[in-house]
Amino acid sequence: MTRVIRVLAPNPGPFTLEGTNTWVVGENPAVAIDPGPDDAGHILAVLEEAGPLEAVILTHRHPDHAPGAIRLAEASRAPILAFDPLEGDRGLTDGETVTVGEVNLRVIHTPGHTPDHVCLLLEPDGLLFTGDIVLGRGTSIVNPPEGDMAAYVASLQHLRRLGARSIYPGHGPVVFDATEKLGEYLAHRAQRERQVLAALAAGRHTAEEMVPEIYQEEVPQDMHAAAARSLLAHLLKLERERRVIRTGRPRDERFVLVTPKACERCGRPALPGSRFCSRCGLAALQEIPEERQRSED
C-alpha cells in the first residue's frame, strides 16, 4: 500500500471545513498534492513529512489550494504540475500518468467546479484525490461563470465509472466508499434540480427567491449567497437544455419554465418559441414557399 499522509493547512472556514488537505503521496521520493495557502509553517510541515519531493501537483488554482506551490517548489526544487500551467510549470493532460518513484497518478480532467480542475487516481491502490469536486463532508459549490453544473455532473459520472476504492478530498475526512459517495453526490444534484423545477412552478423566478424554500434550515443565513450561486448553476444548465427560458432583462437572471407543446407537423415536442420540433423546423426552412413555387411554375 502506497504511503499517503495528510498535512492540514491552517485555513479553516465555511468553505474549507477544517482547512485544506495537502496530501503527501509516496516516499523517497514523494509527491505533494495541493500545497494550500502560502503559509510558511504549513509548507515546512509538508517538507518534513515528504522528505525528498519530486512533484507538486495542483488539482486547480483556487486560493485555498495553489498559492503555497511556489514556495514549496522553490524549497524542494520540484516542478509544479497543473492542467492550466503558468510560466515555468509543467502542463498536465487528461489521461496521462504521472510517475514518481513507485507512485503512479492518473490524471482525470474533471471540469465543473473550475474549468481546469483535475482529479488524480493512485494506481493500483484505487485511491482518488478529488480536490473540490467531492468533499469529505457536505457538498461542493458550483459558482457560475467559472462553475458549470452540466460539466460538474458529467465529471461526477465519469469519476463513478472509474471504480475507485476511497476518496481523499481537498477538504474534510477520507471517504472509504468512493462509489457510494459519488452516488450520493449525483443523487443530491438530481434532487436539487427537481427542487429548482418545483420552485419555478410555484412562481419563484430567481435563485435568490428559491434559497429560503429549498434550503430552509440546511445552511445558515450567511451562506445563502453561496447557495444561490449553486442554484443559478442549475438554472443555467436547465436553460441550455431548453427546459427553462429567461424572462425580463438578461442581467436580472429571472427564469420561467418552458411550457411543452406539440410540433404542428409531427406531434413531437416543439422547440421553445417555435411551432416545430428541430427536425420539422429544418424541413420547413428547406421547403419552397407556396407563393414562390406558383411564381416559378
Break the fold down into its secondary structure elements and pairings.
Layout lengths: L3 E5 L12 E6 L3 E4 L6 H11 L2 E5 L10 H9 L3 E3 L7 E2 L5 E4 L2 E7 L8 E5 L4 E5 L17 H13 L4 E4 L8 H24 L5 H9 L8 H17 L3 E3 L8 E3 L20 H9 L3 H7 L1
Parallel strand pairs: 3-4, 4-5, 5-6, 10-11
Antiparallel strand pairs: 1-2, 2-3, 7-8, 8-9, 9-10, 12-13
Kindly describe this structure:
- There is one protein chain.
- The chain contains eight helices and 13 strands.
- With 297 residues, it is α/β, with parallel strands linked by helices.
- Strand 9 (118-122) and strand 10 (127-131) form a beta hairpin.
- It has three domains: 4-176, Metallo-beta-lactamase, Chain A (4-Layer Sandwich); 193-257, no CATH class; 260-297, no CATH class.
Instruction: Kindly provide the name of the CATH class of the largest domain.
Output: Alpha Beta
Residues in β-strands, percent: 15-25%
Overall shape: it is: elongated
> CATH superfamily of the largest domain, called what?
Ribonuclease Z/Hydroxyacylglutathione hydrolase-like
Q: What's the alpha carbon Rg, rounded to whole Å?
A: 24 Å
Tally the helices.
Answer: 8
Terminal CA distance = 81 Å
Oligomer: single chain
Number of domains: 3
Query: Architecture of the largest domain, according to CATH?
Result: 4-Layer Sandwich
**Number of distinct beta strands:** 13
Could you list the spans in which at least 5 consecutive residues all have pLDDT below 50?
none
| Main β-sheet, spatial strand arrangement | 1-2-3-4-5-6
Characterize the largest beta sheet: strand count, sense, and whether it forms a barrel. 6 strands, mixed
> What would you call the structural class?
alpha/beta
What's the overall average pLDDT, rounded? 93
Helix content bin: 25-40%
Order of helices and strands: EEEHEHEEEEEEHEHHHEEHH
Which fold name fills CATH's third level, the topology of the largest domain? Metallo-beta-lactamase, Chain A
